[in-house]
Amino acid sequence: MKNYWWKILCAGLLFYTLVAGFITPVPRLDILNESIRNLYFHVPMWFAMMALLTVSLVASIRYLGGYKSRFDQVALQAANVSMLLGVLGLLTGMLWANFTWGKPWTNDPKLNGVAIGMLTYLAYFVLRGSIEDPAKRARISAVYNIFAYVMFMVFINVLPRLTASLHPGNGGNPGFDTYDLDSDMRLVFYPAVFGWILLGVWLMSQRVRLARISEKLSETN
Amino acid sequence: MKFNSYKLFALLSVLLSGIVLQAQETQPDMADGMRSSGKIWVVVGVVGIILAGVFVYLIMTDRKISKLEKEIESNTKS
């Protein structure tokens, strides 16, 4: 129970999200209709992604503070899982947009921002792949990771708020906060976000442990 | 035709009920039928099975990794 209580919490939160997400009442709105329930599934992908990118950033900073290869691995695997969540967020968003905004890819600043932001992180993986020396690779990619994090946050959280955007809470659009009955949705949305963050951490921990195993294997051989 | 108050009332009520019905129809469409028939729970069940499968798989992978970690630890000690 000591080490895996949070995994039980994760499963509990996600099952709660599933049942409450489909069953509890939601605001009746035109265009959105029942698809407003995607708030419980699409948006947590991005929250979990940003949480894992923050884990990656902290790991990179800690790596630079002591050059322990463990932190380099955490930074890499957190970025890996966050890319998975980002792709899932993009795909679910495209499906949702197709039915509410008319086409899968509108030239919304948030969509273009996230595309550039994810390319910034793809460059992180390319950079890692191009350096042979492990210590050099870890150091250079840790510095780049800090830069990538700042760029990503500017692209998806700052720039879309400065112009018009279809996304709620950006460019003068009201967020979900302003609709009535939102207190009902909060009761599902926040647990969903927390559950998906925990699932991301779970996936990351498996990758980090596997990387440590292969590292030890290559040491002994 | 003589227009008495009863006929006027009947005409008005018909007209008004039409307006009221129309007002109800313009409400945004929601999956009320699906919910009232209870079949939404079938969807919840299906996604629940998938989610359960994912968690079982995650736990099995966790155990496999733990086994490998223990094996490596015992190998490095001996």
How is this structure best described in words?
The complex is a heterodimer of chains A (221) and B (78). Chain A has a single domain, classed as Four Helix Bundle (Hemerythrin (Met), subunit A) (Up-down Bundle), CATH 1.20.120. Chain A is mainly alpha-helical. Chain A has six helices and no strands. In chain A, 75% of the residues lie in helices and 0% in strands. In chain A, helix 2 (42-66) crosses helix 5 (134-162) and helix 4 packs antiparallel against helix 5. With 78 residues, chain B is mainly α. Chain B has one domain (5-27, 35-77). Chain B is 82% helix and 0% strand. Chain B has three helices and no strands. Chain B has helices spanning 5-25, 32-36, 40-77. Chain B is rod-shaped and about 110 Å long. The model of chain B has no long low-confidence stretch (mean pLDDT 77). The A-B interface holds A 4, 7, 11, 14-15, 18-19, 22-23, 28-30, 32-34, 202-203, 206, 209-210, 212-213, 216-217, 220 and B 27-31, 35, 40-41, 43-44, 47-48, 51, 55, 58-59, 61-62, 65, 68-69, 72, 75-76.
Name the descriptors.
heterodimer; A: 221 residues; mainly alpha; Four Helix Bundle (Hemerythrin (Met), subunit A); 0% strand; B: 78 residues; 3 helices
SS elements, strand count of chain A: 0
- Helix content estimate of chain B: over 70%
Average predicted local confidence, pLDDT of chain B: 77
* Number of discrete domains of chain B: 1
Q: What are the secondary-structure elements of chain B, in order, as H or E? A: HHH
Low-confidence stretches of chain B: none
Q: Terminal Cα separation of chain B, in Å? A: 112 Å
Number of strands of chain B: 0
Which percent band covers the strand fraction of chain A?
Answer: under 5%
Unreliable spans of chain A are none
> If you compute it from the alpha carbons, what radius of gyration of chain A comes out, rounded to the nearest whole angstrom?
19 Å
The main β sheet of chain A shows up as:
none
CATH architecture of chain A: Up-down Bundle
For the biggest sheet of chain B, the summary is: none
CA-based shape of chain B = rod-shaped
* CATH fold-type name of chain A: Four Helix Bundle (Hemerythrin (Met), subunit A)
